[in-house]
Design brief:
Blueprint (H helix, E strand, L loop, with lengths): L20 E3 L7 E3 L11 E3 L7 E3 L9 E3 L19 E3 L21 E3 L21 E3 L21 E3 L21 E3 L12 H9 L1
Parallel strand pairs: 1-3, 2-4, 3-5, 5-6, 6-7, 7-8, 8-9, 9-10
């Protein structure tokens, strides 16, 4: 069901009960609860991009939802992500996230693709991505990250592609990349890397990989 750009300030109440894909981008949904989608028991993909969304309240389960797009909104904090057990794709790009809580994604352990680019993240707790053992793609590009904890990637056993471009990173801690882990791609461009002894680990890792 395509409701893109309709000037909506609330979710239409008469959506077909068998809706599987719902496009609500480019509307005026400034505050929203996932309870609005409870009648849509087969909903798998939900696009809420470009809404000026400042708050998303979760809790009541949407057991079929696999993809949630929240990009280009006004979220200053990550929603709690409760009641989304099947979620595999989450995009919160180009919002105003300044921090993530430890274990912020523990409720969505099936997540495979996480897009956090273009926010205001300056630092991350070491357990920011704890429990995401199925995650394959992690985009942290175009934030304000100045440093990263050594343990950040420890749980991400299936991570294939990591974007760190466009931040303020000058170095990475020794053993930042889990030993023996093979990546398909790691993007490190557009950071002010400071070429001194602290960068020796990263240089050696690049040569070996």
């Amino acid at each position: 069901v395509n409701c893109t750009g309709q000037g909506l300030s609330a979710v239409p109440p008469d959506l077909p009960a068998d809706t599987g894909i719902l496009l609500l981008s480019a509307n005026r949904l400034a505050s929203l609860s996932t309870a609005a989608f409870l009648p849509l028991t087969q909903l798998q993909d939900l696009d809420l991009a470009d809404n000026g969304l400042a708050a998303l309240h979760t809790g009541l389960p949407l057991p079929s939802l696999r993809e949630l797009i929240l990009s280009r909104n006004m979220l200053g904090a990550l929603p709690a992500l409760q009641g989304l057990p099947a979620l595999t794709h989450l995009a919160v790009a180009h919002n105003s996230l300044a921090t993530l809580a430890p274990g912020a994604f523990r409720a969505v352990t099936r997540l495979q693709d996480l897009d956090l680019r273009g926010n205001r993240l300056q630092t991350l707790p070491r357990e920011a991505f704890a429990g995401l053992r199925a995650l394959k793609y992690l985009d942290l590009s175009d934030n304000l990250l100045e440093e990263l904890p050594k343990e950040l990637l420890q749980d991400l056993q299936k991570l294939e592609t990591l974007w760190l471009s466009g931040n303020r990173l000058r170095t990475l801690p020794t053993n930042f990349f889990p030993e023996g882990h093979l990546f398909a791609y790691v993007f490190l461009t557009e950071n002010p890397w400071h070429c001194d002894c602290n960068l020796r680990y990263l240089r050696a890792w690049i040569w070996q990989n």
